[in-house]
Specification:
single chain; alpha+beta; 24% helix
């Protein structure tokens, strides 16, 4: 039997309801692990941001923070003072957010950016 090509962590570029373009990073079981910290005007700009994210991972810093209102934890990845990626969900414990961020970074480092996806419309 052949290997399922969708059973790997991968990027997905999509157009949001307000016609902006953004990306998210999906696990092999289609759970969103992280997403762009901002919206983009078009798919090409979004794709370039993904290439930069993948190529400059070693220069980035990661941090976790607790949201005041919900008391839940989230993570973010920054480069030169700008947020590039943020967690797709919130966590009860800081250690969970830290682990999720490390997993995101490890999976992105092993991803194939050369195969950027087409834009998906929701």
């Amino acid at each position: 039997m052949g290997e399922n090509p969708m059973a790997v962590a991968r990027f997905q570029i999509y157009r949001s309801v307000d016609s902006a373009v953004t990306w998210r990073f999906l696990s092999a079981n289609n759970r969103s692990l992280g997403q762009a910290a901002s919206l983009f005007s078009d798919a090409e700009t979004c794709s370039r941001a993904l290439v930069e994210l993948r190529e400059r991972l070693t220069e980035m810093s990661a941090s976790t923070a607790r949201e005041t209102a919900s008391q839940l934890w989230s993570w973010r990845v920054r480069l030169a003072g700008a947020d590039l990626a943020v967690s797709s969900r919130r966590y009860q414990r800081r250690v969970q957010a830290q682990y999720a961020c490390r997993s995101f970074l490890d999976l992105v480092a092993g991803s194939r950016i050369a195969d950027l996806p087409r834009v998906v419309h929701f």
